[in-house]
Amino acid sequence: MCQSMFKNKRLAYKLSVSILSVVIFIFSLILIYNYYISRKLILENVQENTKKLTSSAINKSSGFFRVIEKIAQNISYLIRDSEKSKEELNDILSDIVKNNTEIYGSCLAFAPYKYKHDIKYFAPYFYKKNGLLFSENLANKNYYYPDWEWYSNPIKQNKPLWSEPYFDKGGGNELMATYSVPFYKHDGKADSLRGVITADVSLKWLQKIVSQIKIFKTGFAFLVSQKGTIIAHPDSNYVMHETIFSLAEKFNDTDLKKIGEEMIAGHEDFIPINSEFHEGRSWIYYTHLKNNDWSLGFVFPENELYADLHKLNQTLIIMAFTGLAILLIFIIIISNRVTRPLRRLALVAESLGKGNFDTNIPPSISNDEVGSLNKSFAHMQSALKKYIENLKLTTSAKEKIESELKVARDIQMGMIPRKFPAFPDRNEFDIYGFIEPAREVGGDLYDFFFIDDERLCFAIGDVAGKGTPAALFMAITTTIMRAETQIAGLNVSRVIELMNNYLCKNNEGDLFVTLFLGILNTITGEVEYINAGHNYPFVIKKDGAVIELDDTHCIPLGINLDSCKDQNTFKLDYGDTIFLYTDGVSEAFNVESQQYSIEKIAEMLTNNTHNAPYEKVKCIVDDVRRFSHGAEQSDDISMLAIQYFGKQLSKTTGQDYQILITNSIENLSLISEKINGLGGDWNIPSATINTVNLVVEELISNTIYYGYNDDLQHEIILNFHFEKGSLRIEIIDDAKEFNPVANADADTSSEISERKIGGLGIHLVKNMTDSFIYQREDKKNVIKILICYK
Amino acid sequence: MIMKITTEKTEKVLVIHPEGRLDAITAGEFEKEVTPLIQQTGQNVLIDFGKIDYISSAGLRTMLIVAKEQKQKGNSLAICCLNETILEVFRISGFDTIIPIYPALEEGLSFLKES
Q: In this complex, is the C-beta atom of B87 within 8 Å of any C-beta atom belonging to chain A?
């Protein structure tokens, strides 16, 4: 989350944060290091200075005690060996007390019987009180001095001793301490104790010295006795009332107790302490006085100790922050300056992305990385612009080609009869065709059309290759096939020859086409065909047999001028089907690269024997699609199926027959054939049929040659009615009115050179028919003829 | 529907053997084929109708043209071997009066050799 937020920040922000973080880290390290080193140095300094600071106090204290000790020892030497009189002793004592301001009292306490052998106890004592000198003998019944510590302790330890401090309640009510020195008589070999001399000293001066010591603001000095009793302390309530141990107990402070133990043991140290002894954390330096094993302590409050250091640190931190602020401003300015061209480029890139290739790229002044990026960007823009323009051109060209291909497909599909039923008024056969190019346009073709009233020309073909070249070649093939069929009429091999000639001579692309061309006589069921290199068609007999029509196979068209003349014939019986296909069906691939195969087609046809052409083609189309599901269609697919039923005289009832023709002279042969057929059907003698042929020909040719003023197609209807021994013929046309019956007789008798040919036809009709009637009905010429025969 | 025409030359007579029908469609072709033969030859001509099974007025017209051509050249023309229907057509049209008709080839030949 944080990382992603950081990611979204501006470069200037990232730079500032990163650099400042590092700088702050380094600053902090330096500051911390500086702080600790300074602290250490300060402590060392303080330790050093403490000794100097305290040494004068110690020296003063020691000096004070040493003076007293000297005086007392000197007196002991003075009276040690000589026998002094009472007066002499009194003088000595009074001199000491009088002349030494620090000494408040002095006593000479003799051991029993050591002053004089008859006096057991003797202890003269001189002391000052309110400026006056008093004397007293301490040897009395109320005060048995040998039991007091100031007498007994030095004797026991056999050395001069300072007493614990005490309040002299009788005297100046001041804090006092007594120094006791034992003295001996030298008896030849050994010393024998004679008594103890004491000096009572006021500690007021010492207290003053100690309590006047000030360390920093709240720091102080204190003095403890050998037993830990507080002798001097800024808080006078502690003095003589508390020991360092009672204080430690009071504050529940083991550290203070340890310090106390160290102090009375006469050690010296400088250690930190966190105690109520002084508010806040502090350091204590303690050292002992050699005279009497008392100990002096100095308290250093830590915050005051480091006050300067803290002050210095504060200043450093302020300086650091000021420096960081300046650094931050500089980073922001610099990074803004560095990223400004980048941001401008980003805006341009956004505009580019929207397709605006003319966006002005601001020129770069610098030659740094950003500058070179700027240049690359400008280069990219122009390259992109060029590329997009090219792309637009190629795309529009491609679109144009595609739309043209679509039109081409429509045109190509328009060339192939795809409307079914193709001949709703013909029931001699049923036909269905299917074509599916692999691409927009393809090289497959099929076609069927009537050459005349009876003959259906049908073909299926496959141009080598696919796509546009194949499609164009296919278009040529289809067109010339129709054209040549019109020219060569019913002669299949002639049609093929003409087509081949054309395709060979006009074949820039070196393409060729396999073609199966057949002409079906819808009356007889006979098929004349040529197979120019195409897949063998199948004939499905009515009884279910599937036969491959594999008797002839020539080279495809467009290869060699020597065309295939191997014309063949087979006969379709009632209910038989011929099935034609291109190799796109048999060689359809599936995803496993397997072929659909001819065997599969044969199998499908065997399983669908009784189906109509549409169902036959449809079930194979579906099966091929199922088979090649998922695989790309590799070749054009075409199929054509024709089922033959034979002649069924739909418009005849009983012995009637009708022929419809257009006004083309070529149709005469068609009529002739039909009439010949009728002769067979109705069992009319051939001589009579010849007459019928002649009559019909004369009348129809007359109408075709002379009856029409325009070049349009006109329909001529011939109705035949057969009765045994006679035939009635009715000829109806919409030509201009012409009554042949009323026509003048032809010339049949003049010499050859004068003989006229006109009117001879009608003359023949008149003379060869039994009845010849003309009527004009509903703008039509109607001729009725009767021909009788035996 | 191509008309097949063969010719046979003897000492004095050119025999023409057409095959098929002589109707409105084929008559033009017949005329085109035969006219040059007539024009080239200086002989008498016999047309054998043995393999012609049908003739209409269009066929008669070409026969008239051939006959006129021969007459102009001073040569003779005869036909032979007509079937029943064709013979009737010739009679009805009066062509039997301008073109000698013989039932057999030999008769036609002998007539033309003599004339």
A: no
**β-pair partners for A229:** A243
Given a contact cutoff of 8 angstroms between Cβ atoms, the answer to whether A305 and A46 are in contact is yes
- Would you give the DSSP letter of residue A253? -
Q: Quick check: helix, strand or coil at residue A284?
A: strand
Q: What is the distance, to the nearest Å, from the Cα of residue A445 to the centroid of all Cα atoms in its chain?
A: 52
Residue A757 is nearest to which of B23, B24, B61, comparing CB atoms?
Answer: B61
> Which SS3 state, helix, strand or coil, does residue A765 take?
helix
CB contact under 8 A, A701 and B58: yes
CA–CA gap between residue A36 and residue A737 (Å, rounded): 140
Alpha helices for A230-306 (secondary structure H): 244-250, 254-264, 302-305
Beta bridge partners of A460: A446, A516
Same domain, yes or no: A456 and A557:
yes
- Same domain? A473 vs A330: no
The better pLDDT of the pair A382, A552 is held by A382
Q: Does B23 sit within 8 Å of A752, measured CB to CB?
A: no
Tokens of A283: 């350091």
The span from the CA of A251 to the CA of A245, in Å, is 10
- Element (DSSP H or E) covering residue A592: none
The residue of B92, B95, B97, B99 whose CB has the most chain A CBs within 10 angstroms, and thus the best one to mutate to test that interface, is B92
Q: Kindly list the residues from chain B whose CB atom is less than 8 angstroms away from the CB atom of residue A761.
A: 56-58
Nearest chain A residue to B66, by CA: A752
- In A104-193, which ranges are continuous DSSP H helix? 149-157
Residues constituting chain A: 790
User: Could you tell me the two tokens for A649?
Assistant: 């005289």
* Residue A101 shares a structural domain with residue A32: no
Enclosing domain of residue A524: 416-644
Interchain contact A763–B (C-beta under 8 A): yes
Are A538 and A549 within 8 A, CB to CB?
yes
Query: What letter would DSSP give residue A745?
Result: P
Asked if A184 and A77 touch (Cβ cutoff 8 Å), the reply is no
Average pLDDT, chain A: 86
For chain A, report the end-to-end CA distance as a whole number of angstroms.
118
Does residue A593 sit in the same domain as residue A448? yes
The conformation of residue A453, written as its DSSP 8-state character, comes to S
Closest CA–CA distance from residue A753 to any residue of chain B (Å): 6
Of B24, B85, B94, the CB nearest to A687: B85
A669: nearest CB among B25, B55, B85: B25
- Would the CB atoms of B85 and A763 count as touching at under 8 Å? no
Asked if B30 contacts B19 with a C-beta cutoff of 8 angstroms, the reply is no
ipTM for the whole complex = 0.91
In the three-class reduction of DSSP (H, G, I as helix; E, B as strand; rest coil), residue A447 is classed as: strand
The answer to the question of residue A88 being in a domain is: yes
Cis before residue A685, ω within 30 degrees of 0? no
Q: Is B74 on the interface with A (CB under 8 A)?
A: no
Length of chain B: 115
Report CA Rg, chain B.
13
Q: Which residue of B has its CA nearest to A694?
A: B56
Q: For residue A701, list chain B residues with Cβ-Cβ distance below 8 A.
A: 24, 56, 58
**Total of domains in chain A:** 6
Nearest to A764 among B53, B64, B89 (CB): B89
- Residue B90, domain member (yes or no): yes
Structural domains in chain B (count): 1
**Each residue's pLDDT tens digit, A351-397:** 888 878 787 877 777 778 878 888 888 888 889 889 988 999 999 99
Q: Please indicate, yes or no, whether residues A175 and A268 belong to a single structural domain of this protein.
A: no
CA distance A332 to A14: 10
Give yes or no: residues A618 and A672 share one domain: no
CB contact under 8 A, B98 and A760: no
B66 contact A CB<8A: no
- List pLDDT tens digits, range B60-106: 999 999 998 888 888 899 999 999 889 999 999 989 999 999 999 99
